[in-house]
Amino acid sequence: MPADVNDAVPVGDDVPATIAVIGPGRVGTTLGRALRAAGHRVVAVAGRGAGGVERFVAAVPTADPVSAHAAARAAELVLLTVNDDELVALARNLAAGDAVTEGSRWIHTSGRYGAAALRPLALAGGRVAACHPAQTVPTPDHTAALTGCAWAVTAAPPDVTWARAFVRRLDGDPVEIAEAARTRYHAALTVGSNGTIAVVSLARDLLLAAGVRAPERLLSDLVTRSAGNAARGGAAALTGPVRRGDAETVEAHLADLRVALPEAVPSYRALAQLALSYARRAGLDARRAQAVQEILDQ
């Protein structure tokens, strides 16, 4: 039976019960909903836009809309869910403005940065961690996506335990990422998520141009299985004309696209070139690989 959201569930020393959210966008609001459902009392929210704050309060009525500094002072744990490019300046501003209480805990959800981005808050007496959900959050009510989701956790050794406990409290799977590897980690997820969306959108456009009215019928299962196979096996999952070295088929694709959808040609060629590099690693015959390369170079 769900806990009464007005009474925090006892969670032990590692997960503070009172929480403030600074940055009520899609991620911040989704986390606010999830934390409320998990029994935490979200006591404050701060954001620059009135619309975002109002949506957050509608979803999490226990949160008082206040300034960022007031929100930070109101809770034991402060979530910074702002855009990547705003994070470092926000941390400096909060530290300089005496918003840090001794022993307070701070988590940011940026994929790009590790815990070092919150160093000013740590120097002011806070305990800091970076916890990024490796999941796409297209809407602010996408809490189901967090269930079982892997999170990249970066923190100093004394803070790893409570950061991992926070993730587990949200039914997440904490995966530790080194501070120096955060940018590379984020690049990987950006390619995996947004790159996939861009490629599937291109495939969808091609099917629409081919007269298919419901392209999802042909793409949904194919894309899901292909992505899963690649995540598990890498280049070994590669199939299709490039992997087989069918140069004539690749040539036919490009010839058709030049007539029907010329704006798609550079993307097709770039993706085929990338696929070819993986096909070579997977053992494609050198002669067949060269034939495909010659077509792509035309």
SSE topology:
Elements: E1 18-22, H1 26-37, E2 41-46, H2 50-59, E3 64-65, H3 68-74, E4 77-80, H4 84-96, E5 105-108, H5 119-123, E6 127-133, E7 150-154, H6 157-169, E8 173-176, H7 182-209, H8 216-233, H9 241-244, H10 247-260, H11 265-281, H12 286-297
Parallel strand pairs: 1-2, 1-4, 2-3, 4-5, 5-6, 7-8
Antiparallel strand pairs: 6-7
Helix pairs in contact: 10-11, 10-12, 11-12
List keywords for this structure.
single chain, 298 residues, alpha/beta, Rossmann fold, 2 domains, 8-stranded mixed β-sheet, 8 strands, 51% helix, disordered N terminus
Tally the beta strands: 8
* CATH homolog superfamily of the largest domain: NAD(P)-binding Rossmann-like Domain
The domain tally reads 2
Compute the average pLDDT: 93
Distance between the termini: 64 Å
User: In CATH's first tier, which class of the largest domain applies?
Assistant: Alpha Beta
Q: CATH architecture of the largest domain, please?
A: 3-Layer(aba) Sandwich
